Amino acid sequence: LLAFCSEKRIQEIYLAVEFDNGSSEAKSPLKIRAAEGYRGFLTRAHQQGLKVEALVGTPEWAVKEHHAAALAAVDAILTFNRTSAPAARFDGIHFDVEPYVLIGYVDPGNRTKILTEFLEMVSLCSARAHAENGTWFSCDVPAWFYPAGGLERERLMVTFKGKEKTVGEHLTDMLESVTIMDYVNRADGAG
Questions:
Q1: pLDDT for residue 25 is more than 60
Q2: Could you point out which of 32, 36, 86, 148 has its C-alpha 20 to 30 Å from the C-alpha of 20?
Q3: Global pTM value
């Protein structure tokens, strides 16, 4: 992977992170599984000048009842960084939480609630990350979270912290960076 990154001039990697519960207690903190393996990879990647962000997320984290799980993941990554040598730390935390795959999202009333809770979760996790030496926090965002206008824009408008904007605009305002996911599975021949 590192040779491929060098050959293709890739500068940043989102590395999926897996967790273990710290112990059998229900409130035990998460720990990064196989931490020494991650530390070794991070050290080698940093020696090549690559930036590596811990990639985590699941759609369920978008809803309020699962915000604690999202925060626990942030805490586990921050703890990993605190207990690692500088060269063996993640450069940031990257969330891939896709609320639009949740059951109920298609209902307009549920959609607004889910998106508002999603923004609350991102805000909480971003604040937690920043509180720890300004740790970088970013998210994956589908391109259609930034609609140009019309009905699509109306469907994605959310009032958050007193401001009404599309969910994408809110995310762009609160994060250092967003990664736009724009998958195309057909071409129309225009162009």
A1: no
A2: 86
A3: 0.91
Cβ atoms of residues 145 and 106 within 8 Å: no
Report strand pairing: 12-16 vs 51-56.
parallel
- The pair of three-digit structure tokens given for residue 107, joined into one six-digit string: 């209902």
Tell how strand 136-142 and strand 177-181 pair up: parallel
> What is the arithmetic mean of pLDDT over 103-131?
96
Report the candidate in 53, 66, 75, 65 with the shortest Cα–Cα distance to residue 132.
75
Q: State percent of the chain over pLDDT 90.
A: 84
Taking only Cα atoms into account, the Rg of the chain, rounded to an integer number of angstroms, comes to: 18
* 57, 96 Cβ separation under 8 angstroms: yes
DSSP 28: P
52 strand-pairing partners: 13
Give me the numbers of helices (H) and strands (E) for the chain, helices first please. Answer: 6, 9
Contact 122, 62 (CB under 8 A): no
